[in-house]
Amino acid sequence: MSVIETPTPVRARYFTQGTAIVAAIASLGIFAYFYRLIFGLGAATNLDNQYPWGIWIAIDVASGVALAAGGFTSAALADIFHKEEYHVIVRPALLTALLGYTFVVIGLLADLGRYYNVWHPMLPSMWQGNSVLFEVGMCVMVYLTVLYIEFLPIVAERFVGRVHLPGPFSIFNRIVDSWLRVCQQYLKRFISLFIIAGVVLSCLHQSSLGTLMVIAPTKMHPLWYTPISPLLFLLSAIAVGFPMVIFESILSSRSFKLAPETKVLSSIARYTPVLLGVYLAMKIGDLTLRNAWPYVLEGSLQSFMYIIELGVGVVTPMILLSMPRVRRSISGLFTAAAMVIGGVALNRINVFLIAYKPLYAEKTYFPSVYEIAVTLGLIATLVLVYRFIVMTFPVITAPHEVKQAERMGVAGVNLGMKRVK
Amino acid sequence: MGLKRRDFFKMAAVGSVTVLGSKSLAGEDGHGGDSSQALGVLVDAVVCIGCRKCEWACNNEHKLSTRTLAEFEDKSVFAKHRRPEDNAFTVINRFVDPKQPGKQLTLKVQCMHCNKPACVSACIVGALQKNKIGSVDYDAWKCIGCRYCMVACPFQIPAYEYHEALTPRVRKCTFCEQRLVEGKKPACVALCPNEALTFGTRQELLDVAKERIKLNPEKYFDHVYGETEIGGTSWMYLAPTDFVNTELPKLQTTAIPNLTETIQHGVFKSFVPPLALYGLLGLIMHSLREDNDEEEKHDERD
Fold first, then answer.
1. What whole-number distance in Å separates Cα of residue B297 and Cα of residue B293?
2. Residue B297 in domain
3. Which of A104, A131, B40, B41 is 20 to 30 A off residue A10, Cα-Cα?
4. Is residue A165's pLDDT more than 50?
5. Rounded to a whole number, what is the distance in Å from the CA of B242 to chain A's nearest CA?
6. Whole domain around residue B195: which residue ranges?
7. Does residue A130 sit within a domain?
8. Does A389 touch chain B (CB under 8 A)?
9. Is B61 part of any domain?
10. Looking at the 3D structure of chain B, how many domains does it have?
11. Is A337 among the domain residues?
């Protein structure tokens, strides 16, 4: 262990041509978001009494939660199963989960008719233990808190001994600093309790998201209507965790012009074919037990989407990632990871939108311009915030950049951390 | 450290028992007890003449719009299939009986006030409740506007005030609960000129329905819709034809929430599965840590 790899804030120019495009999409989204808040769901969306849920639930919430699963899968791998070599992916995955869930909540607020009542499920007088949605809501809320707690040590690492609040706030410098020191000293001891809690909470709500549509047996297409839907949701969330880490790691190293973590990424990619295989076996077993195979070939939009979901999203990347040659190449990893991500996202869209056949619909739901703008805008804003945070906090480990970073004085962060110890 | 961890587990266990206690209480509130004594309405599509007076009575009772009785007498609306909306809690549609093509039947639809409603089970904050009296009641003050009730309803009844920017409500037939409490019939039943709507306890209505089928087997399709559908409903139907020819969906006999609630309560059984998972992961984390202890000590010495 001669080379110690430590996460450091990434040194790069924040505004580039790419950032500008993303910022433009984000601002359109923010405009659409406020349009919705001011003029209401009727003005902003194509939702109606037949289709009460649209892409804000299917993509922003359901897919968002699934794709944030990298947080708990990599925490489980590195911290619980102590595969120390994967520690470099824990912080980026944690940040993705943290931002992912934060934006899930922001997206959900747009969809709630009475968003200002979003805190109601917290009141014991309104607890409704029979509601699947209640369980999802509570778990997501607690898990989001756990994620922020898990991120606190990173904030402390960055700012202990370097708190310089602007202007009049500078009088709080010492208070904030000592509070961060307390966080650093005590949280470190208890952090494992939160890490395990994060994994348990994730398992609970990832599966419960799959139970949501089980309450609509007459409206769901039989390809997706199954009592083991919660198990399928959990397995697919676990399977998409590492591909999400791979996808995002390659994207950010490309964006920041860092050398990609090929070794670690191809190493975690080994798990993906196994996890996808378990998921696929369950999907196939479920179809067989329910005698639902004829629906796969019925030639409808639903059957078409189902074939794409499994063929492109599960089977192909499973085969690709079981080949060492693919796992060793960055473009191979990226393509396969993107397919898994697309497959799981498509599965959520299929369950919440494509499979949903209202009893008396006269026309099919298609998202409005505002709905699409909000969804794209949220993703764009997430990317901007991610970029800001990895440039501010020690999240990404970039071994090849250490020397350059030291020259620029960023390594002082690590020295600061050690002083506290 | 070890001691602290054990204490934490204890705290977590106590905490979860408390949580569970209140949760199961909330669960029981949602569903009424003996449904046979709950009130209901029998809709007889054989007797219904499609006059739409029930629609007007409902509109009037709930002040849904300023439309006049004359507007409700207009039969041209039957050209289009209609569904209950946020400003119309009940609507009548006209169908052609495929067995007797010359004969038309009119059917009133509204909330069925199920015995074990899917919407009540779905609601995240308990804004929807099944009352002992029979009605499924909505509390807009609690509602967060997630519209999961609309996803869950097997009759596709709840409508949403999408046009309301700030205070949208879920809207549906209230069973004129206020009138029931005062000992009056629901507004639509009170105004029905042809006695197509019969009001009474669920048991009385079932007796009436079966009696009618027995007396006039040639007029009635031999099925009381709502007697067994999804565990029974407070509003029930008689019709001259199979209900799949109307807009009443073919449904299972078990209550809709049974499956989701079984899954849900299975996963959370006394909080044992989540805590067991927590314990198991803790054990794995702890036992695998030994191998790395050396490294950690080394780290701390730096």
1. 6
2. no
3. A104
4. yes
5. 17
6. 29-259
7. yes
8. no
9. yes
10. 1
11. yes
Q: How many domains does chain A have?
A: 1
- Residue of A198, A236, A207, A123 whose CA lies nearest to B268: A207
Q: Which two tokens stand for residue A18?
A: 């790419």
CA distance A210 to A231: 7
Residue A194 CA neighbour count, 13 Å, CB half: 20
Length of chain A: 421
Nearest CB partner across the interface for A49, out of B23, B83, B277: B83
B292 chain-A contacts, CB cut-off 8 A: 82, 84
Nearest to A96 by CA among A340, A384, A382, A344: A382
Report yes or no: A200 at the B interface, CB cutoff 8 Å. Answer: yes
Distance CA A111, CA A308 (A): 28
Run of H or E residues at A235: helix A229-255
Cα A181 to its chain centre, rounded Å, is 29
* CA B297 remoteness from chain centre: 60
Among A95, A117, A81, smallest CA distance to A9 is for A95
Instruction: Read off the pTM.
Output: 0.89
Mapped onto helix, strand or coil, the DSSP state of residue A220 is: strand
Judged against a pLDDT cut of 70, whether residue B9 lies above it is answered with: no
Neighbours of B42 (CB within 10 A): 23
The string of pLDDT tens digits covering residues B271-292 is 888 999 999 999 999 888 766 5
Q: Which of A121, A200, A359 is the closest to B156 by Cβ?
A: A359
Q: What tokens appear for B259 in the block?
A: 């499956």
Residue A86 belongs to some domain of the structure: yes
Tokens (6 digits) for B281: 């992961």
The CATH number that applies at residue A181 is 1.20.1630.10
CB contact under 8 A, B151 and A215: yes
Cross-chain Cβ contact A127/B23 below 8 Å: yes
Separation in Å, CA of A380 to nearest CA in chain B: 25
Global ipTM: 0.90
Please report how the helices A229-255 and A188-211 are oriented relative to each other, as an axis angle in degrees rounded to 10: 120
Confidence class for position A416, pLDDT limits 50, 70, 90: very low
B156, A49: Cβ pair inside 8 Å? yes
CATH number at residue B170: 3.30.70.20
Distance CA A87, CA A274 (A): 21
Cβ contacts (< 8 Å) between A197 and chain B: which residues?
A: 278
Q: Which residue stretches of A187-228 are H helix? A: 188-211
Q: What are B170's strand-pairing partners?
A: B160
pLDDT in tens, A14-68: 999 999 999 999 999 999 999 999 999 999 999 999 999 999 999 999 999 999 9
| CB A225 within 8 Å of CB A217 | yes
- Is B186 a member of any domain? yes
Provide the shortest C-alpha distance from residue A21 to chain B (in Å). 31
Choose the mutation target among A127, A131, A204 for the interface with B, i.e. most B CBs under 10 Å: A131
* Amino acid identity for residue A376 in this structure: L
Residue A249: inside a domain:
yes
> A149 lies in which domain range?
17-399
Convert the pLDDT of each residue in A260-277 to its tens digit: 889 999 999 999 999 999
Whole-Å CA distances, B194 to B54, B92, B100: 11, 15, 22
